[in-house]
Amino acid sequence: MAGQNSIFTWVRDHKLHHTYSDTDADPHNSKRGFFFCHMGWLMVKKHPLVIKKQKELDVSELLADKMMMFQYKYFLYLYFVLAVVFPVSVPMYFWNETLWSSFFVAYCLRYVIILHVTWITNSFAHLWGTKSYDKRIQATNNNIYWFFTFGDGWHNFHHAFPWDYRMSEVGKFGGVGVLLLHFLAYAGLVYDLKTASPNIIHEHMKKHGDQTGQKMLAEKENLKTQKKIY
Description:
2 domains; fatty acid metabolism; transmembrane; stearoyl-CoA 9-desaturase activity; fatty acid biosynthesis; membrane
């Protein structure tokens, strides 16, 4: 329903982004400027290095996923039904909205909002913010991103520990995305959720975190000291 291409294409590009983050092999390299990493990358031809590295990327686990390949094969049909027909039909049926009103609000406006909320991950969260976990990388923790994604604003953490499904150090309360993953895990649709251990996070922050990261570590140590006292 998000209309951001097939799952296969999205995951492949995301893997490429993490592997070559903020280089010419990154589909939305933030070093090419705000407009490019926000939406311009979708308006121009891919950088030759993106094409080259995309071909070299191992996506065997994606190709082996039958459900993903089904969605990839029938993406346009599924998109038309689930992202256009369904949301446009609901207001018309239940609230007697006109076709044009439903189309422009339930499809066009919704689609534009979803796209830009997604794109701020590539722009705002790679250009402005703090680097509490790793100051060597471009990704940041960004409050604007946090606000519009209902809690998923810890992008520096996500890039420092990409295998951690929580996408932040605050665990299951880290955002709507984390809550959704917990629900899907409860339903048996996702499994093998991985996390970075507190010790790994602590040592990584201590070694690579910026001033905000060092401040966070100091506050944690103070809390530990206070608990020992009481």
